[in-house]
Amino acid sequence: MADYDKYRRKKKKSRFFDIVTLVAVLIMVCCAHAGAINPQQFFLAPFMSLAYMPMLILVLVLLLMALIWRKWLSVLLVVIGLVATATVIKLFVPLNSGDDKPAIPADTTLILNVMTYNVLGFNYNEPSLSAQPSASIRLILDANPDVVLLQEGSAGGLGWDEIPSVKPQLPEVMARYPYCYNGNEGLNIMSKYPFTTQPVGKLQHSRTPLSYNREQTSYLARAFDLTLPSGKQLRLVDFRLQSYHLGFGKSATVRVSPDVKPSSMERMRRSFALRSENAAALRQAFDESPENLIVCGDMNDITASYVYRVIRGNDLNDAWSDAGTGYAPTYNRHHLPYRIDHVFYRGDVRPIAAQRLTGGSSDHYPLMVSFDIDITDNH
């Protein structure tokens, strides 16, 4: 009788573990595909997208436990869940090996190194950092990309020669990057090659101290049409979408916009809704852009989210997914290790390498992608 009771308890524990695994797998699958739902239709969908990586980690832990304890039903449930979300896993954690990556052209003039970097106004508003040479500028110079697309690259409309942390290094910057655009909206470029520029969509002028423009959104986008040494024309689009404003709202007088209460949940809900509108406008601009296109920016949203899916559409490719390796968060504050900075591309360009750099003094880390810029040639 005692052996039978022990057997029943063991079976009950095993059944409970299987149920827990099943629930965790179902939640993970729902979170993986929640980005298909417009946040304006179901406000919990983007929160589910944010929960995908924690749920994936939990499910992998359950898989390890199931293997150790030989819970084969739980192992099967996890495997089914991983297969159901395999495409999303590759977007978050690509495992591109050396064998998978395309060959690097022998002709280095066919390679364009592009960096995207939110530099947080070069720390103009941070007393402990604003008086010393910018670590973010140093990071850029050491990495030596051909083109750097900046977000929050100006501080309150000031020129780079008026920002104390940038001014000492400005001669070196200009010597390395003779073609620059320093607009007061914060979307800036440092380039080794000449370009023309134009706003994408409606021109957004000066921004408030809270980092949004006069229409109460921090959505900004600008196109830069490069002329490369070969004569090839290539459009780069730099963008920044609505922020979460997680650092604001501690005071009752602070609001993301006039109709938003300063609670964290309300700020996030409003940000998700605004980014959905931002994404639709940006997507329309891409539909009207030349075929050869590289898109870089601070999306303030994660891989596989609704905003990500709208922006990427059916024609843009994710450079990190195609050429990067591993999980590479680009946001480094508020204990939110997510990749919210992205590089997309289409046309006769192809990423041959991608890296997430660390260092600098911003709340973001930069991404740098090396592109083969003429894959129609046999090289």
Secondary structure: elements and pairs:
Layout: H1 2-33, H2 45-50, H3 52-69, H4 72-84, H5 86-92, E1 111-118, H6 127-130, H7 135-143, E2 147-151, H8 170-176, E3 179-182, E4 188-191, E5 195-199, E6 220-227, E7 233-240, H9 264-287, E8 293-298, H10 306-312, E9 317-318, H11 319-323, E10 341-346, E11 350-356, E12 367-372
Parallel strand pairs: 1-2, 7-8
Antiparallel strand pairs: 1-12, 2-4, 3-4, 5-6, 6-7, 8-10, 9-10, 11-12
Helix pairs in contact: 1-3, 1-4, 3-4, 9-10
Summarize the structure.
By secondary structure, this protein is of the alpha+beta class. The protein has helices at residues 2-33, 45-50, 52-69, 72-84, 86-92, 127-130, 135-143, 170-176, 264-287, 306-312, 319-323, and strands at residues 111-118, 147-151, 179-182, 188-191, 195-199, 220-227, 233-240, 293-298, 317-318, 341-346, 350-356, 367-372.
List the keywords.
6-stranded mixed beta sheet; 12 strands; 35% helix; Deoxyribonuclease I, Chain A; 18% strand; 379 residues; 11 helices; globular; single chain; alpha+beta
Overview of this protein structure:
The chain is an alpha+beta fold and 379 residues long. It folds into two domains: 2-92, no CATH class; 108-372, 4-Layer Sandwich (Deoxyribonuclease I, Chain A), CATH 3.60.10.10. It is built from eleven helices and twelve strands. The chain has helices at residues 2-33, 45-50, 52-69, 72-84, 86-92, 127-130, 135-143, 170-176, 264-287, 306-312, 319-323; strands spanning 111-118, 147-151, 179-182, 188-191, 195-199, 220-227, 233-240, 293-298, 317-318, 341-346, 350-356, 367-372. The strands form two sheets. The chain has a six-stranded mixed sheet. A six-stranded mixed sheet has the order 5-6-7-8-10-9. Helix 3 (52-69) runs antiparallel to helix 4 (72-84). The protein is globular. The model is unreliable at 205-216 and 249-256 (pLDDT under 50).
